[in-house]
Inverse folding.
């Protein structure tokens, strides 16, 4: 037997996680210096949170400590279960490194147990869709090691692309790797960004206007998606639901997917990309991360 664990960056609805017996380790964030956490999506008011950011609230985040990983993982190992952890990209957070430290220490205490860690190279539903893949495979009776190997392959085919309303949040948090090439007046120019092959955020195109940036996301989907009819596609938005609905319409025009899961960004990942962000996640061609 094995147990699936993820973190709140996976951006999956709490009801869905509970239904599938997935444990969640919460990230911590700070609003104007006051500590906060969002362990559940059930009580999170995304509209109020992102409006607060628009009004100037300063939001910072903290990575998950090795001690907290051990606190969550140890009881699972003590009851005799192996662990499959699916976490946020090591390219944008040091949390995965803390998970590795915790796993190494716990492995000494529980040498007969398996602790498998998957660096998703993504965040939000770029992480969450891999969690759900693990859940579906587990229900089929697939072993922890086979699921682990499949997730490591799938992460390279999972396209993480998005557009932001303002680059300042990524600039402040230091999460945009090639910010220097996009400095300037971006009032009307909307960048397209992606998670690259190392799980880092990079900007790769400049689009004139919000409407065209949404259309550009759909165009990338049409170009790179594979077997759309068999997959769940993810859309995450930071209080721009109308734009998310527009993107959904565009996706269904040429290559309608089996299902579209739409969520509002949770506060930790959302604070880095900022209000107005619109993101798209789908399984694509092998070269999607280097497109």
């Amino acid at each position: 037997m094995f147990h699936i664990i993820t973190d709140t960056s996976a951006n999956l609805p709490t009801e869905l996680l509970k239904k599938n017996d997935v444990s969640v380790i919460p990230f911590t964030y700070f609003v104007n210096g006051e500590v906060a956490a969002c362990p559940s999506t059930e009580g999170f008011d995304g509209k109020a949170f992102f409006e607060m950011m628009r009004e100037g609230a300063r939001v910072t985040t903290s990575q998950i400590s090795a001690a907290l990983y051990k606190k969550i993982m140890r009881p699972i190992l003590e009851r005799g279960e192996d662990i499959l952890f699916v976490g946020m990209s090591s390219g944008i957070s040091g949390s995965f490194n803390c998970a590795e430290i915790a796993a190494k220490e716990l492995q000494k205490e529980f040498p007969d147990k398996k602790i498998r860690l998957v660096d998703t190279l993504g965040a939000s539903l770029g992480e969450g869709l891999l969690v759900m893949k693990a859940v579906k495979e587990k229900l089929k009776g697939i072993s922890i090691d086979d699921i682990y190997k499949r997730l490591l392959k799938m992460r390279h085919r999972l396209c993480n692309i998005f557009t932001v309303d303002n680059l300042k949040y990524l600039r402040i948090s230091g999460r945009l790797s090639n910010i220097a090439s996009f400095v300037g007046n971006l009032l009307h120019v909307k960048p397209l960004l992606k998670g690259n092959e190392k799980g880092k955020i990079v900007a790769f195109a400049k689009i004139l206007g919000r409407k065209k940036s949404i259309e550009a996301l759909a165009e990338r989907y049409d170009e790179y998606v594979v077997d759309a009819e068999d997959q769940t596609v993810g859309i995450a938005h930071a209080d721009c639901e109308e734009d998310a609905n527009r993107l959904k319409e565009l996706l269904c025009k040429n290559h309608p997917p089996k299902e579209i899961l739409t969520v509002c960004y949770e506060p930790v990942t959302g604070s880095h990309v900022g209000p107005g962000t619109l993101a798209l996640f789908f399984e694509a061609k092998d070269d999607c991360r280097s497109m």
Notes: The chain has a mean pLDDT of 92.
